[in-house]
C-alpha cells in the first residue's frame, strides 16, 4: 500500500509531499514526492487542464520498467505504476523538485525509490 500525503510541506507539516510505503503491513519507507502543481498545464496535443493529483483509493493497473509519456512530449517515466487512467507513480529527473508540487497530476519519485516500490508491487 502507498499512502500519499499530498499536502504542502511546511515547518509544521514536514511530511507534506511524501509517500509512505507499506508491504504486508510493514512500513518499508517514507519517500519524498512531487504531486500535481495545481497550475494550468498544456499537453502534447494542446489540451489545457489544471494539474491535480486525485484523491482516493486506487489499485495499480499496469506496471512498467521503462515508460515514456504520450501526454507530455515523451517525458521519461521510469518504473511507472499506473493506477487511475493516465495518472501514475513514477520516477523523475527533476529530483530538486521532490518535496514540492511540480507534476502534471502524477506522483513523482526519485527513480531509485520508485524502483523499490515497483519491485515490491510485482511481488504481491
Note down, in words, how this protein is organized.
10% of the residues lie in helices and 30% in strands. It contains 1 helix and 9 strands. Strand 7 (81-84) and strand 8 form a beta hairpin. By secondary structure, it is mainly beta. The relative contact order is 0.22. The chain starts with a strand and ends with a helix. A 4-stranded mixed sheet has the order 6-7-8-9. The chain has a 3-stranded antiparallel sheet with strand order 1-2-3, with helices on one face. Strands 4-5 form a two-stranded antiparallel ribbon.
Describe the biggest sheet? 4 strands, mixed
The whole-angstrom Rg is 14 Å
Structural classification: mainly beta
Low-pLDDT runs of 5+ residues are none
Strand order of the largest sheet: 6-7-8-9
Q: How many strands appear in the DSSP assignment?
A: 9
Beta-strand percentage range: 25-35%
Mean pLDDT: 91
User: Percent range for helical residues?
Assistant: under 10%
Tell me the distance between the termini: 10 Å
Based on Cα principal axes, name the global outline. Answer: globular
Listing every helix as H and every strand as E from the N terminus to the C terminus, the arrangement reads EEEEEEEEEH
Helix count equals 1
Amino acid at each position: 500500500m502507498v499512502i500519499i500525503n499530498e499536502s504542502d510541506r511546511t515547518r509544521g507539516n514536514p511530511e507534506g509531499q511524501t509517500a509512505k510505503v507499506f508491504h504486508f503491513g510493514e512500513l518499508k519507507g517514507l519517500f519524498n514526492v512531487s504531486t500535481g502543481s495545481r497550475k494550468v498545464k498544456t499537453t502534447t496535443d494542446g489540451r489545457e487542464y489544471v494539474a491535480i493529483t486525485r484523491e482516493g483509493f486506487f489499485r495499480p493497473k499496469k506496471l512498467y520498467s521503462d515508460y515514456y509519456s504520450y501526454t507530455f512530449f515523451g517525458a521519461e517515466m521510469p518504473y511507472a505504476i499506473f493506477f487511475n487512467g493516465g495518472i501514475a507513480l513514477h520516477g523523475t529527473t527533476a529530483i530538486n523538485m521532490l518535496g514540492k508540487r511540480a507534476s502534471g497530476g502524477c506522483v513523482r519519485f526519485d527513480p531509485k525509490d520508485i524502483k523499490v516500490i515497483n519491485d515490491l508491487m510485482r511481488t504481491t
